[in-house]
Amino acid sequence: MISRDTLMSWSGRILLYGFLSMLFIVTFFPFWQIFVLSINDGTDSLRGGFLLWPRDISLESYAAVFSNPEIITSVKVTLLRTVLGVPLSVFCIALLAYVLSKKDLVGSRFVNLFFVFTMYFSGGLIPTYMIVKSLGLIDNFLVFLFPGLINIFWMILIRTFMEELPRELEESAQIDGANDVRIFVKVILPVCVPVLATVALFSAIYHWNAWYDSYIYTYNPDLKTLQAVLVKILNQYQTGDMLNDAQQLANEAKKIPVTGESIRMTVTMVATLPIILVYPFVQRFFLKGMLLGAVKN
């Protein structure tokens, strides 16, 4: 006979697994639908219906997207921005966090409050634009790196992690004659890999998905990021769909495998998939870094 405690335990598991399964379906299905529509024949998608699998597989939309020189250029800009921006941002944030984690820092409370203050209050868009312009960063690739170099929330995660490290690590290195720079590079950074990997993931997502700074601070088409081009294409094809319903019907009659809808889905996949593929490689660091960096004993 099954005991009451065992029955309650199994009921709780069923409810938990059922809830997690429903949550997975709700969050995963929209992404899967976008993927299916991107590899389905565009004119076939116009028939509508519920698609769990493409009815007529076609990669013409991907061919059309990757044959667009504007998209290729934007991918290069976004890749370069991410490759340069992530390590630079992580290093600068870690350096600032190391300084602010020092208990004997003169005015440490005021300095920490000063940085936290910037999380809640800013000068606004126009003063920021004026500062960026006065620094000569308009239509300059460096505008993607320097204005957003320091993120205070990420700094607090790393600082909290460093504050939990045993002070004996630094003291032993000081006895051996190491200075602060050597201690930071050789002792502190290696033991902070989990939280640094977490912040690196946050920074990579930020740089890969950023579009507003490209939209505001750059006018040169060769400096547009992938997400900025994606916004442009989505708006362009959305407007085109509203104005050219007759053209869509003509494309269907001619069996042209590419439509505005398929292009939108394809560009969304191209812009989203790379950063999603990065997550599994840093997941173990992400969980550990979030737990250790956000909780203080």
Automatic annotation (TrEMBL):
It comes from the Bacteria. It holds the Pfam family BPD_transp_1. InterPro entries: MetI-like, MetI-like_sf. Keywords: Cell membrane, Membrane, Transmembrane, Transmembrane helix, Transport. Residues 75-282 form the ABC transmembrane type-1 domain. It is a multi-pass membrane protein. The chain crosses the membrane at residues 14-35, 79-100, 112-132, 144-162, 183-208, 263-282. It is found in: Cell membrane. PANTHER family: ABC TRANSPORTER PERMEASE PROTEIN MG189-RELATED-RELATED, POLYGALACTURONAN_RHAMNOGALACTURONAN TRANSPORT SYSTEM PERMEASE PROTEIN YTCP. Belongs to the binding-protein-dependent transport system permease family. This is Carbohydrate ABC transporter permease.
